[in-house]
Every structure is written in structure tokens, then in C-alpha cells.
Amino acid sequence: MSSLTPETGQDLSGWVGQQFNLDASTLRSYFYEHREIDAVQHLFRVASSLDSMVVGEPQILGQVKNAYAAGRLGGTIGPHLEKLLQSAFFVAKKVRTETQVGNASVSIASVNRRATLSALNL
Hints:
Organism: Alloacidobacterium dinghuense
GO biological process, one term: protoporphyrinogen IX biosynthetic process from glutamate
Number of helices: 6
Structural class: mainly alpha
CATH class of the largest domain: Alpha Beta
Shape: globular
Distance between the termini: 46 Å
Largest sheet: none
CATH superfamily of the largest domain: Glutamyl-tRNA reductase, N-terminal domain
Helix content: 55-70%
Pfam families: GlutR_N
CATH architecture of the largest domain: 2-Layer Sandwich
GO molecular function: glutamyl-tRNA reductase activity; NADP binding
Number of domains: 2
Order of helices and strands: HHHHHH
Protein name: Glutamyl-tRNA reductase N-terminal domain-containing protein
């Protein structure tokens, strides 16, 4: 997993800046990168919805699966990444079924709604 684009070797913030006519140096503060085992751990935590603003949020795994589908469609998922992602999906399912994560089935939108209603005393 790399933040370098294969075509140009430029970092992701440089590519996004170029595509959307934005200053790459300003964008860099909004990006972060994980390498090797840190990248694997991050993927598993994200897919399992443990690294989320709302732990257990079900939409996160769907977003990872959508990114996987787009990668497969684009031909960018090689055999190692395929195995890694399938393992992440397996672990995410295991986390949801064998722990209390996700039992409340909340989303950021539902948490925001509850907070707003509470603040307005509704």
C-alpha cells in the first residue's frame, strides 16, 4: 500500500492537488500514510469499524468493500492485496459477530441527530 501514484511516482497529495488545481503542500496536512504492518493493522481496524468516529458504524465496511470493488474493476488489486482485503473482510465480520461492536448499529448521522435533538431539548 503506497501513497505514490504508479504513473508519476508523485505522492497522493501532489496528485490530488494537480487533479483539482489545489496546493499540494496545503493538502499534505490532511493526508496520512501507514506502511508495512502499520498499514495492515490500520486496514483491519478500519474494516472492523474500530477506527471510526463512531465505533461499530456499519457504513465503514461498506465503504471499504466499495473501494475494493472499484480497485478490482480498475485492475489494481493484485494477489497480495486481494488476500489482505479478503482477510480484512473476514476479520471485520468476526469482530461484528463475536463482540458487542455494532450492536447499537449507529452512524455519525444518527449520533449527530440525537445530539442536536438533545441540545434543542426535543
